[in-house]
Amino acid sequence: MNEKKPDTELYDDPSDEDQETQPAQGPVLFYNDLVVDHFMNPRNVGEMPADEASGYALVGDPSCGDEMKLWIRVASDRIVDIRFKSFGCPGAIATSSMATTLALGKTLEEAAVLTDDDVIEALGGIPEDKKHCSLLGINALQKAINDYQLKKMMQHTEETDDLS
Amino acid sequence: MIYLDHNATTPVSPEVLRAMMPFFQDSFGNASSFYRPARTARAALEASREKVARCIGAAPQEIVFTGSGTESDNLAIRGVCRSFKGEGRHVITSSIEHHAVMKTCDDLEQQGFTITRLPVDSLGRVSPDDVRKSITPRTVLISIMTANNETGVIQPIEAISAVARERGIVFHTDAVQAFGKIPVKVDELGVDLLTISAHKVYGPKGVGALYIRKGTTIAPVITGGKHERGIRAGTENIPAIVGFAQAAETAVQHLGEESVRVAKLRDLLETAIREKIENVQINGSDAPRVPNTSSISFASVDGESILLHLDLRGICASTGSACATGSPQPSHVLSAMGLSHMQAQSAIRFSLGRENSREDVERTIEAVRETIEKLRGISSVQA
Prior knowledge:
The complex is a heterodimer of chains A (164) and B (383). By secondary structure, chain A is an alpha+beta fold. Chain A has helices spanning 16-21, 33-40, 90-103, 108-112, 116-122, 134-163; strands at residues 55-61, 66-75, 78-87. Chain A has a single domain (27-163), classed as Sufe protein. Chain: A (Alpha-Beta Complex). Chain A is built from 6 helices and 3 strands, in the order H-H-E-E-E-H-H-H-H. In chain A, strands 1-2-3 form a 3-stranded antiparallel sheet. In chain A, a hairpin with a 4-residue loop joins strand 1 and strand 2. The radius of gyration of chain A is 19 Å and the shape is elongated. Chain B has 2 domains: 2-7 and 256-378, CATH 3.90.1150.10; 14-253, CATH 3.40.640.10. Chain B has helices at 14-20, 22-25, 36-55, 69-82, 99-110, 128-134, 157-167, 186-189, 238-253, 255-276, 303-312, 332-336, 341-345, 358-378, and strands at residues 2-3, 63-66, 90-94, 114-118, 139-143, 170-174, 193-197, 208-212, 280-282, 293-298, 315-316, 347-351. In chain B, helix 1 packs antiparallel against helix 9 (238-253). At the A-B interface, helix 2, strand 2, strand 3 and helix 3 of A face helix 11 and helix 13 of B.
């Protein structure tokens, strides 16, 4: 126990060269560096005041293991700001962070077709038993877009009503 | 690295390794053979049996060496049950047992046995009165652990064994997490069968022992040669057994001072975490516990997320029992104590040991404080 080891040793992946020469072997067993980075330094964490948010979603259930809150701000049909908070395992937090990263700056049309596979791919893979976590971010995103569109539609209806 | 997962396993201590070394290449003989190198192995085996027996207040002929604590549990439970013919027999156990006992009882249930899994109170203790009430004329075995691996809570073994003895029922206890941490003496506990394991007490992995009280009928589970008086066939793992004996002897010798030292460190950890972090709950802390174990729930954050943060800072801890890592189900032990899914999911187990210092604990307290602050900042759930 006395020998000092560098703190990062566990997560030092083989060099890029090695990764290229080594064929994929079996399932991914542990979080890779990028997943760990999104877990330790999640992007777009925070809340958005109701008057700034164009769409909001609450998905998951903390009594079942994970939960995510997501806010989007839309301008000219584009996601110009995105914020989230998540309760869950490292996989849930990292995929939440990556989902927001992928969605930010995209048009609603582009964001609406993002899938959990896109999130996993962008993270360079996640362990097999953590794949269900990746649904959290994407589900929240789709729900927030729907929320925005529903609000917009209702607003539009109200405006139309006002005009008549 | 700060290793705080001694309930999962411990490093082999230098004197244990030294004791083992001659038996790999020099005295490598098969203890069952005739010639001299074999006789050295045989002598070492029997000397080790005596040492282990002395550590738990047993006679040498009451000790059977096995391949692990899990195997000892299997031998105890299956061995007793197989010695009873006929179907519809009954076994009493608890809802907080290690998987080695739990899954073995599940398997017996599939084979037609009736299993009673006793509940525990909010502090994680089995009630001896519940044991008494559960006994039927068909009860053949009671198996209740001495101390729990996740919470460290010590079960009222003396009171349960008194009930068992009164009714003439064989009583087994898995003492893997108690041995080396608190005094474990078979006559004081009043048990018929007792499981211990080497790698929890700075011995090697892959060796355990089962104490079988003289007169207890048990059928072998692994059959073959006449090793271990025909109760456990298979060539004896002499280096591991010698290491086990050395480890057990050292642990018992230093138990008094070491348990006081470790208890102080554990109390420091718990007191500081309670003071510095809001909304924490120490599971089972009001019950008698082994001195090294602390199970702490940190509201609104996930246990695995805490573990990864700590791991990146070189601190090794665990969520519940190591076997359950990667499983989405929260700990059956904490659930049985009445914790909600979320409370159980937010629990971390710290289990201290011989090489931990006060400085290790102080660094851990700071790391935990920072980790919880960070994760609560991300969490969608209010602490």
